[in-house]
Amino acid sequence: MTKILIVDDEQIERDGLQLIIERNFPSIVVKQAKNGRIATEIVDEFQPDLVFMDIQMPGMTGLEAIEAIKYKNSQIKFIMATAFASFEYARLAMKLGVEDYIVKPAKASEIVDILGKVLSKIEAEKELVKRSKHQQYALQKAKSIFETDIVTQLIFDHVHEVQLEELVELLDIQATKEKYVMNLILPLGSEAYYSAIREKVRQTKSGWVGALYGRQLPIIVFLKPDQSFRSQATLLAREILKIAKTYEDCEWFIGIGNLYSSLEQIKQSYQESLIATRDTTIPAKFRFYDDVPPLVPGFDENLSKKNEQQFFNFVRNGQWDEIGNSFVDIIETLEKESTPLFQAQQRVMELFWIASQVLSEMGAIQDIPVYSLQATDYRQLRAETSHLLDRVRTSYEEYHAELGTDSIQLIKKYIIEHAHKDISLDTIGKEVGLSPIYISKIFKEQLGINYIHFLTECRIEKAKKLMRDPEKSLKEITYEVGYHDPNYFSKVFRRMCNVTPTEYRKQLIG
């Protein structure tokens, strides 16, 4: 709704002008002020789009009132009205950015004509602001999708370096040299908490929040120059856990991986953060990986942690022979060390816990396998372990068998058809019924590229086709193929095609 304020010390002038406006523009809301001082007071509350301002008024002149109003409300437009057709008034009015100038007494048709032109300008600017806000909203939404996908690809080692550079440029939080992963364990069905957690991390301007997979929410945190690793991680963990208290939910727990200096090592920090959540019963509700005590006293802790990292990779890559050998080796080592059977079973159970966490991320298994009884000797422990491992492997293989051989084709088809939209691994996963992590995995394994690279190729190919139409501007093409920033589109196009969109179009026309 457009609003107009009429400022004039003559009542008859104000009423006459209001009558003309209301007869010719019935949807406009009109308000009056009898002098400049009152006008400056009304503006803050009324927020007019346009002010008809008389120049000669007692106390504060119209020019002074315009200057005072524009100081706080630069977007308001003005039409000046005066009985004196002075060049000096016109010069000062133009200096203040006044839209037009009416000499009283003016004909109604003249007022309507001038007002119509200014109102058209106001509507055009409103539409531009509305479109800009929509584009900003779309860009922010796209950034959120990029952020979660970057985290997913980094912690599961499915990233493409070129695409990573492009995506990182779009995010508000810049990567610093040292970084680590926090893994937040939430109760099942905790999607309602996700926005609050993301907003809390954004307020700190220190990290990227990944997607929620089952109960796990990974966060890549960048170390701030003025903070130590432990103090920053502790502070952020406590801030996040305050959200749990708001919802009166005590089941949250945060595991914190070690600090690393390269993005390539972020996967290791993630694995450490997950292992740090092994025991969620401690009162602090967060734990650093280096503070996780060994389950078997006297056992080589460094070797144990190294084996866990290796085991992680075996499970993630589906290397079942190596997984089986890991169980055999650990039981053999424990037996040679004369480890009490209860502790040995706990240690082996820990490997099953790691396997179940990794497989649940991929959607292949939901429950943690448990021993049906306490083993009475190492022979029985080996037999029970073999039985549990067979169950886990069967669940994994059944899951993959259900997927069928055409899963990758379904994913490619969906991406091609929806490339112009803001689609993410999570979006694709819901569409084809697969885990986002599994999608990222099979894309990299079967096609040799990550899904974002394939999505980019689809968009660039569509852009090339649209460039054949000389009526379409590059800005229109940018939005039509799914990008929200023409500069970013130009950068991606140049990286993919070795020429800018403008240069490509010239070659095409030539």
UniProtKB/TrEMBL annotation:
- Is Transit peptide one of the keywords UniProt gives this record? no
For molecular function, the Gene Ontology terms on record are: DNA-binding transcription factor activity; sequence-specific DNA binding
- Supply the alphabetized keyword list: DNA-binding, Phosphoprotein, Transcription, Transcription regulation
Query: Can you tell me where the transmembrane regions are?
Result: none
Record domain Response regulatory: where:
3-119
- PROSITE patterns from the xrefs? HTH_ARAC_FAMILY_1, HTH_ARAC_FAMILY_2, RESPONSE_REGULATORY
SMART domains (alphabetical): HTH_ARAC (SM00342), REC (SM00448)
Q: What is this protein called?
A: Response regulator
Question: Which PANTHER family does the record match to this protein?
Answer: ARAC-FAMILY TRANSCRIPTIONAL REGULATOR, HTH-TYPE TRANSCRIPTIONAL REGULATOR EXSA
* Keyword Phosphoprotein set for record: yes
Q: What is the source species?
A: Bacillus mesophilus
Pfam families listed in its UniProt record: GGDEF_2, HTH_18, Response_reg
Q: Which SUPFAM superfamilies match?
A: CheY-like, Homeodomain-like
InterPro entries per the record? CdaR_GGDEF, CheY-like_superfamily, Homeodomain-like_sf, HTH_AraC, HTH_AraC-typ_CS, Sig_transdc_resp-reg_receiver, Tscrpt_reg_AraC-type_HTH
Origin: domain of life: Bacteria
Biological processes per GO annotation: phosphorelay signal transduction system
For the HTH araC/xylS-type domain, which residue ranges apply? Answer: 409-507
Q: Give residue numbers for the modification (4-aspartylphosphate).
A: 54
